[in-house]
């Protein structure tokens, strides 16, 4: 069986694939692999661009461990603690939460990933006060190399908890994850097109005054698409049941929504990229067109519907977390490189923001962060572009997303994470024989 990831940037031929339906079956699968002298890799939705989930040993697919186990009230915050099977996909989790009047505090761009895969690679959204998914994990259970199930939280197996809530599955296989959810909320989404210089000149204000701010920038275009989402009480603005937010736009609005989401983001983006691939000289014009094509719009909808969107155009991506204080310089350098070389890039950069986080291997650990995602259409070469971007990011102490493409190794990464040695010590104790390893984890963790 040949396994490939969504982006077709990684493939592998596992000796066997198992789909445990219970925690006991999961433990047995790990024990059997160890008896057979094989390595083990859990896999979620295969949406990492890096080869994090690849294995030539036993692939453990958790698609059958998706149950909702319990919903409790956290006495400290009053929020709900929701325990689910680690293989649950984010869209399933979002639906379960919405049915109970709950929501994830923040989400990334899509909802196809498993919760375990998303937290294990440091998946994040945007918002200067709202951290990545791993920051919302309050407890988990992990099946170790000895097949034992260990409950972990800040007060029980605390180091294993820290290393497992963002650890690329190298301390064991997560079987359940407990996340802190918040009361359901809507987002008032404002999409706009603004001059690049204005956005870069007022960046702190735009980021700090919004709940969730990000922007898309088609290379060399002088205008960018800004997305500003404001948290509001459910139904406060449109006065209709949740999900009606987009429908209140009426017929004209529906056409605009279709133009935005299908023509410009999916089918239209595909057409632009195919044209740019066949006729590279058209790319600057296409980028200018794409940057201007969006018309400002505002709508209100439940949070997960605003934050997560379908992404049907296949692409490659490297993304680095850089100190927020230097992101404008980083973007100007990238702009300079793209202009000097005339590289054919008809895909936008995406720039997002996060607060400092305490998770040991979070790319936002200990510093206010800006994320710069460098994306390329899958039919076009990406090597020179990504190399140049990595050099620019590396010069400012950038940290690559664990689930995206990059060339860094443990030597570089150890210098970027103050708790790297704590992580390695905990991993050594949990998995001294490196049962849960592959070529990627050996490169990035040593
Ligand atoms: C179109 C697209 C959009 C994306 N948008 C964003 C975004 O907005 N923000 C962002 O930060 N990232 C984003 N990503 C990256 C993505 O969120 C991460 O790569 C995430 O890990 C994918 O989850 P998955 O379930 O597919 O995990 P996989 O890719 O299958 O696995 C990822 C890692 O998790 C481990 N793992 C999986 N299951 C378990 C388990 N049960 N126990 C222990 N370890 C486990 C695997 O071994 C592997 O190391 C995007 C990716 C794509 C393709």
From TrEMBL:
Descriptive protein name: FAD-linked oxidoreductase
Alphabetical keyword list: Oxidoreductase
Domain of life: Bacteria
Gene3D superfamilies for the chain: 3.30.465.10, 3.30.70.2520, Uridine Diphospho-n-acetylenolpyruvylglucosamine Reductase, domain 2, Vanillyl-alcohol Oxidase, Chain A, domain 4
InterPro entries named in the record: ALO_C, FAD-bd_PCMH, FAD-bd_PCMH-like_sf, FAD-bd_PCMH_sub1, FAD-bd_PCMH_sub2, FAD_lactone_oxidase-like, Oxid_FAD_bind_N, Vanillyl_alc_oxidase_C-sub2
A Pfam family reported for this protein in Swiss-Prot or TrEMBL: ALO
Organism expressing this protein natively: Promicromonospora thailandica
Keyword Oxidoreductase: yes
Entry GO CC: membrane
Domain FAD-binding PCMH-type: 10-184
Signal peptide as annotated in the record: none
Keyword flag Calcium: no
GO molecular function: D-arabinono-1,4-lactone oxidase activity; FAD binding; L-gulono-1,4-lactone dehydrogenase activity
Annotated PANTHER family: D-ARABINONO-1,4-LACTONE OXIDASE (PTHR43762:SF1), L-GULONOLACTONE OXIDASE (PTHR43762)
């Amino acid at each position: 069986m040949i396994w490939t990831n969504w982006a077709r940037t990684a493939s592998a031929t596992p000796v066997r694939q198992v789909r445990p339906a219970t925690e006991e079956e999961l433990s047995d699968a790990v024990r059997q692999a160890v008896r057979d002298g094989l390595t083990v890799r859990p896999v979620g939705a295969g949406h990492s661009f890096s080869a994090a989930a690849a294995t030539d040993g036993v692939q453990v697919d958790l698609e059958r461990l998706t149950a909702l186990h319990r919903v409790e009230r956290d006495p400290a915050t009053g929020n709900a603690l929701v325990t689910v099977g680690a293989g649950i996909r984010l869209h399933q989790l979002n639906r379960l939460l919405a049915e109970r009047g709950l929501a994830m505090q923040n989400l990334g761009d899509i909802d196809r990933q498993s919760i375990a895969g998303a937290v294990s690679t440091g998946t994040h959204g945007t918002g200067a006060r709202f951290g990545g998914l791993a920051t919302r994990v309050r407890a988990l259970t992990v099946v170790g190399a000895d097949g034992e199930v260990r409950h972990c939280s800040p007060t029980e197996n605390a180091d294993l908890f820290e290393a497992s809530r963002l650890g690329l599955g190298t301390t064991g296989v997560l079987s359940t994850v407990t996340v802190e959810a918040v009361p359901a909320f809507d987002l008032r989404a404002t999409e706009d097109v603004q001059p690049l210089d204005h956005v870069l000149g007022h960046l702190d204000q735009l980021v700090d005054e919004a709940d969730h701010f990000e922007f898309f920038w088609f290379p060399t275009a002088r205008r960018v698409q800004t997305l500003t989402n404001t948290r509001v009480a459910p139904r406060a603005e449109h006065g209709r049941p949740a999900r009606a937010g987009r429908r209140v736009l009426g017929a004209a609005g529906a056409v605009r929504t279709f133009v935005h989401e299908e023509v410009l983001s999916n089918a239209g983006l595909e057409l632009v990229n195919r044209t740019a691939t066949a006729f590279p000289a058209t790319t600057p014009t296409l980028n200018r067109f794409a940057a201007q094509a969006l018309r400002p719009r505002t709508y209100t909808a439940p949070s997960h519907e605003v934050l997560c969107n379908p992404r049907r155009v296949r692409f490659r991506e490297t993304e680095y977390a850089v100190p927020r204080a230097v992101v404008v310089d980083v973007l100007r350098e990238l702009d300079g490189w793209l202009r000097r070389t005339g590289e054919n890039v008809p895909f936008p950069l995406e720039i997002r923001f996060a607060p400092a986080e305490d998770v040991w291997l979070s790319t936002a650990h200990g510093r206010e962060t800006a994320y710069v995602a460098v994306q390329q259409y899958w039919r076009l070469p990406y090597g020179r572009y990504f190399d140049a971007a990595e050099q620019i990011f590396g010069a400012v102490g950038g940290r690559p997303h664990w689930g995206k493409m990059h060339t860094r190794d443990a030597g570089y990464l150890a210098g970027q994470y103050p708790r790297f040695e704590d992580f390695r010590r905990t991993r050594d104790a949990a998995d001294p024989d490196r049962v849960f390893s592959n070529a990627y984890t050996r490169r990035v963790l040593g």
